[in-house]
């Protein structure tokens, strides 16, 4: 019984401080500031006044009237291939430093953006277009002149303030479409930048010889990995892979590089037959070659389609009956030996080397035999014809067959 007076006194004290309500009831109400009490599930809450309304605009302020844009509009997205940009000529050799690349198109479809690439690295992408004016010939009609010259449909100018020494293969791309699906036309130009005097003093000398990693003497995969190292010595600026005396790969990218060591690696495709591979490490025009390693690419026999045999029919042949008009002929062909499947056949005039007819091949005529025919009126008679069966670039020719003149028919 002594507990009851104590609880009653506590409730009185709480009532004097604020409103005592259950936690669930407080959650349903608004504008309350609550704190927990010593009684589980009961909160002490006070009513909080509503905040003052936010200041608004003066009633005399009116929104501006909407006026449609009467100026240049954003062009619709283009998906048509732009014209090929014509790049201003640059010297084959320049001094390292500032270089200006400029281009124009004089007619046709313009681009929505353009890019500059150097050694497969993106240097610029944007929409900074101009319309340059160049001198016109004296006989140019006056209505085509702008400020005394011809104005390009679209132009672009890109300045490299510090062109590094070495080789530069520039690509200028003029593009439509989107970045995800660009439609670009590209032009290329190259130059060699000579080092400045300070750079030349630092870069003079010949690189040390690179060491080739192991290469198998025989490969059946049609490719081989060429890897090399310069463990310690004078490094190079770029490197090349040679197959015999022919450069088949060149880059200034290294797998690993320090002040005194370098390494590189690339996969080189090989055709059937023997090869002699080496690596050349270069600094400016001074190069040092590695040893040469021989490898034989044994890719199996160089298969081609089977040789076609030909037959020629004229209206006088009894086997055809009345199937041909008086001036028509029928040429048919078929394969009699095994070979790879051809993907097209061509009818060729032996004298002029002209392709008279070409047709893709989708399926054989049964049991692995390929066949085809041509029926029509020859343009010239007499004539010598042959049939060529091809699979990609691998082709086989038939024997030559003679097309008789109308008098001989």
Automatic annotation (TrEMBL):
<dbReference type="Pfam" id="PF08329">
    <property type="entry name" value="ChitinaseA_N"/>
</dbReference>
<dbReference type="GO" id="GO:0006032">
    <property type="term" value="P:chitin catabolic process"/>
</dbReference>
<protein>
    <recommendedName>
        <fullName>Chitinase A N-terminal domain-containing protein</fullName>
    </recommendedName>
</protein>
<dbReference type="GO" id="GO:0004568">
    <property type="term" value="F:chitinase activity"/>
</dbReference>
<keyword id="KW-0732">Signal</keyword>
<feature type="signal peptide">
    <location>
        <begin position="1"/>
        <end position="17"/>
    </location>
</feature>
<dbReference type="InterPro" id="IPR013783">
    <property type="entry name" value="Ig-like_fold"/>
</dbReference>
<dbReference type="InterPro" id="IPR013540">
    <property type="entry name" value="ChitinaseA_N"/>
</dbReference>
<feature type="domain" description="Chitinase A N-terminal">
    <location>
        <begin position="219"/>
        <end position="294"/>
    </location>
</feature>
<dbReference type="InterPro" id="IPR014756">
    <property type="entry name" value="Ig_E-set"/>
</dbReference>
């Amino acid at each position: 019984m002594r507990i009851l007076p104590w609880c009653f006194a506590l409730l009185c004290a709480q009532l004097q401080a604020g409103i005592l309500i259950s936690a669930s009831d407080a959650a349903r109400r608004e504008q309350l500031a609550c704190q927990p009490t010593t009684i589980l599930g009961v909160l002490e809450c006070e009513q909080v006044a509503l905040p003052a309304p936010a200041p608004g605009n003066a009633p005399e302020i009116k929104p501006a009237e909407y006026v449609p844009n009467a100026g240049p509009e954003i062009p619709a997205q283009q998906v048509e291939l732009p014209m090929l940009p014509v790049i201003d000529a640059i010297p084959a050799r320049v001094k390292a430093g500032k270089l200006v690349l400029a281009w124009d198109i004089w007619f046709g479809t313009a681009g929505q953006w353009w890019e500059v690439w150097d050694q497969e690295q993106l240097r610029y992408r944007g929409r900074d277009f101009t319309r340059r004016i160049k001198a016109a010939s004296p006989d140019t009609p006056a209505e085509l002149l702008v400020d005394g010259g011809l104005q390009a449909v679209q132009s672009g100018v890109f300045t490299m303030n510090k062109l590094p020494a070495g080789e530069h293969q520039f690509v200028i791309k003029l593009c439509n479409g989107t970045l995800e699906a660009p439609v670009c036309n590209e032009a290329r130009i190259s130059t060699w930048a000579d080092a400045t005097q300070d750079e030349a003093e630092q870069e003079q000398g010949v690189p040390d010889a690179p060491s080739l990693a192991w290469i198998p003497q025989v490969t059946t995969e049609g490719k081989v990995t060429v890897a090399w190292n310069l463990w310690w010595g004078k490094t190079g600026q770029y490197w090349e892979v040679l197959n015999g005396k022919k450069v088949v790969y060149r880059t200034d990218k290294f797998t690993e590089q320090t002040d005194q060591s370098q390494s590189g690696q690339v996969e080189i495709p090989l055709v059937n037959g023997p090869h002699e591979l080496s690596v050349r490490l270069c600094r400016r025009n001074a190069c040092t070659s590695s040893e040469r390693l021989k490898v034989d690419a044994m890719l199996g026999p160089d298969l081609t389609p089977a040789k076609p045999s030909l037959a020629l029919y004229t209206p006088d042949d009894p086997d055809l009956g009345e199937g041909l008009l008086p001036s028509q002929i029928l040429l048919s062909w078929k394969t009699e030996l095994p070979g790879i499947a051809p993907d097209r056949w061509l009818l060729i005039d032996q004298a002029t080397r002209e392709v008279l007819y070409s047709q893709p091949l989708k399926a054989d005529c049964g049991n692995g035999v390929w066949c085809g025919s041509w029926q029509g009126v020859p343009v010239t008679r007499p004539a010598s014809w042959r049939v060529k069966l091809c699979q990609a670039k691998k082709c086989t020719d038939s024997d030559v067959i003679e097309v008789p003149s109308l008098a001989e028919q």
